[in-house]
Amino acid sequence: MNTLKPSSLESQLFFFAREALKHLVLKSRCGITMHPKVVKKNIPNIDINIIKDFSPLLCVYRKANPKIIKDKDYAYWDSSTFKKEVVPSSCAYMTLSMLELCDYYEKFKDLDNSLYTLATLYKGMARQQLDFYSAYLRNEQGVFIIKKNVSDDTSEKLSFEAKESKFKFSEQAAMMTAFYKYYLVDPKEGEPYKRFSEDIFNALCRFRENLYEQSFEELNKIAFSLNLYNSYCRNLSVEYLLLDIIELMNSMLSEKPKLLEKINNCSLFLINLTLSHESCSIDSLRERRDNLMKDLLSLYDDSRKILIKNQDKKDLKYSSDDIIYYIIALINTGLMDDEAELITTEIYKNQLLFSRMITSWPEPPSLESPERYYGLKINSENLIEEQEFKLTMPIAFENEYAPIFLKAVEYNKKKDIFTPSKLSFDSTKNLPTIFMILYFLKENYYKKMNIK
User: Which secondary structure element, helix H or strand E, spans residue 184, and what is its range?
Assistant: First the structure.
């Protein structure tokens, strides 16, 4: 761990994210699930033997205890701990994460049938999920809102009720990107999903004035979805709306700089500035990005080897998206020098790993798996070291809990120790974070592992 390189950090995170997602969407049962027979009926060309112990999710619940219950050949989470609220943005990022991995698993065609099957399974599940969201997660006006599953466990009929009457624009924007991404992955069947996505974008444009009244945090989330959407469709109308929002956020910051005191907010804004500059090539965005990166680097305390977000407080609380967004934001700027690389690896080790913000770590691929070899070619010369997949340190909750990010950890400055928060799964933290890792680190992973 002392010689961890940034590229190994990225490989470990990409491996963790894809395995954590696989466990959640296929094994946890933390949401409405599809019966394997339904999967077989709706997703052709699936080897039923590969998915016989899977319980694919149609949607994901907001909270649960991720302790694994083992029952013969099955392992799943305790359903009595499920908080059955369904947040549209969490579901959208779950679907987006699966669609991001379709390309990865398609590379195992004729190499490993079980891995290649995941591409077909994820694509088919994504379509079923999007249909489910449209049918159950919208109100009478057709907008996505947070709902709660109030179905009788003894009945096959699903029943949802609105948890909150108000809707959020960021929830609509996240869904917009998920529907469009499905079209890109499956153009043959995806045209209706593309049109639905475009309808959501047009609605955002019609309510432009209402968008401008949103909080900085809400605008930050909307801007991220617009950046994603623009990367998918390359549309000038999207860029115009995006730039309006970025300009508004800059104005809000000039009046209230404290809006960036939250690390996750500040990091997400850096990500938005980087993406917006890449697509729009506006000098002021580059300058703002460079200055904001300096601000983020200045949060690092060299003596403690962690971020210090508030010097006055005795106990400091860090959320999982504080740390992951920070790491992704720095990597994604493309401005990493030796100092930034050192800071990134130290924060990764100390505030993500040693802090026990991760409950458990998946075992690396076996030596028989193509995933374990550069170029996916199984021979001794191409063997990838275990450090590219797995930590060299033990995780306190190994084997008892599913691999997830805890919501937060608390740091006591006087004692110099971290205390993990309650051992619980929160989809509003885990799914956006998993997607961030998969979306931003995938190409670097392909290059390093010589995957074409």
Answer: helix 169-185
